Amino acid sequence: MECPSDDLLQAFVEGQAPAAKWAQVAAHLDGCPTCRACVSAAAAPEVERVGRYLITRLLGSGAMGVVFAAYDPELGRPVAVKLLKRELGPSLERRLVEEAQALARLSHPNVVAVHDVGHEGGRPFVVMDLVEGQSLRAWWSEAPRSLEALTGCFAQAAAGLAAAHRAGLVHRDFKPENVLVTSDNQVRVTDFGLAITEGAAAAVAEGSPAYMAPEQASGVAVDARSDQYAFFVSLSEAVAGRRLPRWLRDALHRGLEKDPAARHPSMAHVARLLEDGPARRRRRQALALAATLGVFALSWVGLRALEERSIRAQCERDGAALVVPFDDLAAAYQATHSPLAAHAWSDARGRLEDFVSRWRAASVETCRARLEARGPQPLLEAQARCLEHDRAGLAAVVAALRGIDAEMVERSSAVLATLGSVARCHDVSSLTLEAPAFAAPEGVAEARVLIAGGRYQRALEAAERAVDSARREGGLAALGQALLWRGTAHGRLGQLPRAQADLEESVSASSAAGAQGAAAEGWVRLMQFVGFEGGQVDQGLKYDGYARAAVERLSGLHELEAERLGWRSALLARERRFDEALEAAQQQLAVVETRLGARHRLHAVALDSLAGALAGVGRLGEAERKQREACQALEAEVGTPHPRLAACLNNLGGLAAARGDWAQAVALRREALSMLEKMPGPPTQRAAMHRNLARALDALGRAEEAELQRRAAEALSPDAGAPR
Length: 724
What we know:
The chain is an alpha+beta fold. Helices cover 63% and strands 8% of the residues. It is built from 31 helices and eleven strands. The strands form three sheets. A six-stranded antiparallel sheet has the order 1-2-3-4-6-5, with helices on one face. It has a three-stranded antiparallel sheet with strand order 7-9-10. Helix 2 packs across helix 3, helix 3 (33-39) packs across helix 23 (537-552) and helix 19 runs antiparallel to helix 20 (476-492). The chain is globular.
């Protein structure tokens, strides 16, 4: 359909659209980022209670509503509460409640249990188990998993789907992100937000495109066999690049048949197959060892083993070619004489060793798979390009660290964060999303690393070369990548009009090339440099709408979504829209904690952002707690002393001052200043801290000490700004 009228969009937002139009608008929004941006809104207002349930924190948000952690005071247990959006429309709202009621009647250890449904303020809500765990994808990515462990987890997920099917439900959005794995490897299928009762007609082809069965993507009726297809797409991602036993290869091929009738008879059958497969393999191996083999059979086994050893040796030689000059880098860190160098190098060495180990293992597996023709060649070639892209990224990191100085030591963690996650090279969704980036012109990897290291002018020069190369020889995807990093370098150098021009052209080129991930990053950088740093808040919020629409259409862009929410919160705070800024900051922290983990580099950033937003609405006690958590997370990340930690402590002192505890403010600001004085850095930063300390001392009536701090500030920077 054409873009809906403003009146129809408004009716959709308010939940007043006619039933016949609602599904059409919903389908249109899925493919139109402009209209989607128009109807995007903050995910959740401040909520303290839903029904009898006391809200404790925001867990996340999605197209259907928001999910909170909560406490049930009657039964004395933690639960999760999903509060659905008003604008879902009456028919979809009724359907979701009906599916929740069906799930409430379903009790199975591999399905997140539903305990209650109700209404709050005219909005339906669903109460479920609060499961502390990680997604199935995060579980298999965080550490090497044996094939038996993988099939065991998927067998549990299959059993959960089978239970839902027996209850008459079709999930319609099964994927690794919608399966939770607890610390004791208990698997729960979750997020039945798109589920329908079997036999019911679906208004539109809803779900995640990468996992949709052909019949689901075409919008025709779906049943349990459609979930089976999505299940086997997920399983194929988990085992990509491995040598698979024949029974598992056969199971995958049958589960991915285009004709639903040719697939496995049921998910219960699939669960049994995955549970019995390893046992059958062990029995077969035992029988083979016990059998009396003839001479010719032994000869064939010997030749096959020799061939396998030859292939593995060749691939291991290729993997071993990736070498990091650890001794040279250790000497470079030491030569900076920075007090941060010892901790920074210890962190760098560990992360580099981990990257090299993971890269070599992935390289060997991909090499063997290609030589033995295991799996679709386009997929294997994409994996190889991904690994080569990461190898080039490592080379750029090593080149930057060879020339490290005291200033770059402070940014060592950020430089290392540019290394890719090797696990994504065996993930179908990530490969599809990032494929255009693998063709980035020479200079892009160097520019990205130099920006992380604070070498903005050199980054600009590298990006200039990349843009020139892309305009001469590359396609639109390459040009979009090159312009993204040239625009970012301009922004870091304060050349904001040039940054805006480059980034807008980057978004246009990337969108035209289908490189939606790069386009989404371009919109977020425009929020940063034009909206926030350029002071064009209205324009920044307009970019936010485009960024949100781009990110929501893709899966896996969790870091970028967290950054977007952080800049949204900052822009809204600039407008003194503090309640909305707080909502965005809460969503940012929820994304980081549920999708990236508490040890991710953005955890401290998100906590700091939330502390500022809480202070904006006058909740100073909560703000102090979050700021203290931010400082603890930061210390774990960068060590102490560190300029970022000093700034965090200074902010904590500011919050103590805001609630009138000047003695605490003095103690924290002295600690921050003492830390900063141990390190090289811009004198203006120390001058500002001296002035902050003087203000706190004045409030305590310690005028002489305050005057000494002001004189110290004047000596460092006569033009230093007013105290904060």
